[in-house]
Amino acid sequence: xxxxxxxxxxxxxxxxxxxxxxxxxxxxxxxxxxxxxxxxxxxxxxxxxxxxxxxxxxxxxxxxxxxxxxxxxxxxxxxxxxxxxxxxxxxxxxxxxxxxxxxxxxxxxxxxxxxxxxxxxxxxxxxxxxxxxxxxxxxxxxxxxxxxxxxxxxxxxxxxxxxxxxxxxxxxxxxxxxxxxxxxxxxxxxxxxxxxxxxxxxxxxxxxxxxxxxxxxxxxxxxxxxxxxxxxxxxxxxxxxxx
Length: 243
Known about the structure:
Layout: E1 5-11, E2 25-33, E3 39-49, H1 57-62, E4 71-76, E5 97-107, H2 117-136, H3 140-155, H4 164-187, H5 191-204, H6 209-221, H7 225-238
Antiparallel strand pairs: 1-4, 2-3, 2-5, 4-5
Catalytic activity: [protein]-peptidylproline (omega=180) = [protein]-peptidylproline (omega=0)
Subcellular location: Cytoplasm, Cytoskeleton; Cytoplasm, Cytosol; Mitochondrion; Nucleus
TPR repeats: 209-242
């Protein structure tokens, strides 16, 4: 559409019906290079969930148009890669990338209900960390998307029994995701959504300093100073030296 993301077939695949769908797990061989030919990323078997923004947006968008067994060349503007910030030390700001991608396999994602406690924690943490990456890139909408996916994983029903330690760890990951979600929503001035996220944290941990601070900040931004002051005072009482 805008000419900033282009895909060309180098080696044909097994047919249009073998293209992966959103929500499926794919495994690709991938090599990314700068315009001068410098290789900045290479993997012989990179696995990710299509549509979850687990990888470069250029790859996530284009893999849906790659057939199993196909090798494709993707030329992507910085907008779909590492953006205005780049990636220190090897990818300068505003760098276009060329990706050579071979789709090795596409299959249905794991059933969340059948994940063990450790598998669920690891998967949720991977999505949360991806959200943190987008937050650092100042792409707050994609950050929100990743945190939402992590929360869906944590809150999904399960047919497996978890140990008390795993339950406690899942709750910790949930609280981190909700706090990060609130921070992202604040950046976009989505005050009602941020307030909801803070309240969910405080249901689990009434003394959570980040949630108290952000809730007070949201209320202040909305002009609800009478409500904001005691909440901010409570946060200050918990950590008097916190700037």
